[in-house]
Amino acid sequence: MVCLARFARLVIGSGVLLLLISAASPSIAQQVNPTASSVKEQQLLQELNRVQGRVSIPDQRSGVLEQPAGREWREFRNVTLHWIGGIAILGMLAALIIFYLTRGMVRLQSGRSGRTIVRFSSFERFVHWMTATCFIVLALSGLNVTFGRTLLLPLMGHEAFSEWSQWAKYAHNYLSFPFTIGVVLIFLMWLAGNIPNKVDAAWLKRGGGIVGHDHPPAYRFNAGQKAIYWIVVVGGGLVAATGYELMFPFYLSGIEGMQLAQVVHATVAMLFIAVMLAHIYIGTIGMEGAFEAMGSGTVDVNWAKEHHSLWLEEENARTGASDARTQPTAAE
User: Fold this and answer.
1) Is 57 part of a structural domain of the chain?
2) What is the Cα–Cα distance from 173 to 184, expressed in whole angstroms?
3) What pTM, to 2 d.p., does this model score?
């Protein structure tokens, strides 16, 4: 009887164990072993929402081989960003060429008076040109990251392109510091003169002297220059902040944050470059006498009357003279 009872317990226990194994087998079958050789990439993405393995080094993040956000970032980096940059930059260049061919240079209607007035100090011009020089190098080296492999590699060859890209990366990193300092100084120097007011609205309604031949009054900075100022401050601040996050990875965020930083950095930079092309156009071949403001620091009095009449009146009133702070040119 004792043996029979033991046998019965053994049979019952075995049956219960078999039932438990049968109930658990579907969930076991659905679990994915990341290290199994038969596992497919799609299985891992469905199960773990990423392709992840095991690593023996301390940084366990290195075990993540692929994730959906990474795929989306790669698509943006390799496809979308090219379209954004191409449309923004080439579109702006095309618009400027068409505008120049139809409008030409904005000439001084009254001609030159032969007298000049100081518009920017030596320090202001130094800050402007330091920031502008850094921006040009940063723009070219940054565009190389996006378009260099497609446009330059076939022309330069692998060795020359590698050498160029390495030095471009060095320049991009190190010149970011004086560029950032320049943006901060520009913000502090010209903030008071770049607060929007009612005069700016009237200036925009009348085309700003660019569309047509009207010359609406403006203070030291007109509405267009104020727009450039805020684009430099906000856009420059964004590219600087996101750029430093990429230069010093994992201090402020993980891989997802760095992907977002790269998207913001690249997108803002492309739009920034496009806007600066328009700024360069107006300051060089777009308007007679404009380059002199940042070149020598002085402008012709008639230029000031036509484009910044309210500012000229302020300068005259401040010094109590009709030709305040003006001086004859060398030709006189």
Assistant:
1) no
2) 18
3) 0.80
